[in-house]
Write a structure and sequence with these properties.
10 helices, alpha/beta, single chain, 310 residues, 15% strand
């Protein structure tokens, strides 16, 4: 597998604070310090990425709307020409003011994690009775888009495949179609084992293992500037470098990254503490995301539509 000259997508973590405790999320297991990304650090990252074909996804292990400067972060990334700026939220605190700010900042993609079709289901899966709030928040942003005649952000309503709602996806289609605008969609997402730490790996247990795409194409930047090689490393166990000490380009081509890629190319996964028990590699191509309004498509790289098998 060929290494990209620069990461093609970055999951940037504005914060790892969260206001929910969802059933399939490792947030409650996380021991690393919690905090908020410094604006100066974020600006340096954006500046380094300016002019490159790199996508930003402003979310990792936390609720990005909790960051007090999330609107200005989105606006700065868009103003500096980042080709695609996306954000994932649980939508529980997505007020009208925040929704308007995201639209006016030029956000390209907004992913709203719902995972339920009723208040009871939502409480069971997410631990809080916020279903009605979430539905109204999503309706609000969709309504604002129409009022402002804005095609951005493309909004997706997300359901984890292990939820009851995902198994009754036709109900979800009927529920949301009346509000979704052109380009908006409903998606299902396959849960991951977070390298075998949240549950035992099973996705790839019957498949011949192949190199994961993450170390070769994508990266995660934690709120403190640590760069980790994949979205399964929620604890920051495999830090490749820190943006306070090195540029992202230097980190991407450093000894630690080269060694990790060699592990994958040689099938020596036991040499990596984060890779040895992982089965999340099996959907590192984006095949775990499916647009259920277009049954013949998958959602790859957090928003890029690809045909199955591509």
């Amino acid at each position: 597998m060929k290494t990209a000259a620069f990461p093609q997508r970055l999951n940037v973590e504005p914060t790892n604070h969260c206001n929910l405790r969802c059933r399939l999320c490792p947030h409650s297991l996380m021991k690393r310090p919690r905090g908020f990304m410094d604006l100066a650090l974020f600006h340096r990252l954006v500046d380094e990425c300016r002019g490159r074909d790199v996508r930003f996804w402003l979310h990792y292990l936390g609720e990005p709307l909790l960051h007090p400067h999330i609107i200005s972060m989105v606006a700065y990334a868009v103003e500096q020409g980042i080709p695609s700026v996306g954000l994932s939220t649980n939508a529980t605190i997505m007020t009208r003011e925040l929704s308007l700010g995201l639209i006016q900042a030029g956000l390209h993609r907004l992913e709203c994690s719902v995972d339920a079709l009723s208040a009871d289901e939502y409480l069971e899966f997410r631990g809080k009775d916020e279903f009605d709030t979430v539905v109204e928040s999503i309706r609000c942003v969709l309504s604002l888009k129409k009022q402002l005649h804005s095609q951005r952000p493309i909004l997706s309503v997300q359901y984890m495949t292990k939820t009851r709602a995902a198994r009754e996806i036709e109900k979800a289609r009927r529920f949301w179609r009346q509000w979704l605008g052109p380009g908006d969609f409903i998606m299902t997402i396959q849960d991951i084992s977070f390298a075998g730490r949240v549950r035992e790996g099973s996705l790839g247990s019957s498949l011949a293992r192949t190199p994961c795409e993450w170390p070769f194409r994508y990266a995660v930047v934690l709120w403190n500037g640590d760069v980790v090689p994949c979205d399964s490393d929620f604890e920051g166990q495999c830090v490749m470098g820190n943006l306070e000490k090195s540029s992202l380009e230097q980190i991407w081509h450093n000894t630690a990254y080269r060694a990790l890629r060699e592990v994958h190319l040689r099938n020596d996964y036991h040499r990596s503490p984060i890779c040895r028990r992982c089965d999340d590699w099996n959907i590192s191509d984006g095949s775990g995301y499916r647009n259920v309004l277009k049954n013949d498509h998958h959602i790859s790289a957090k928003g890029k539509i690809i045909n199955p098998g591509c």
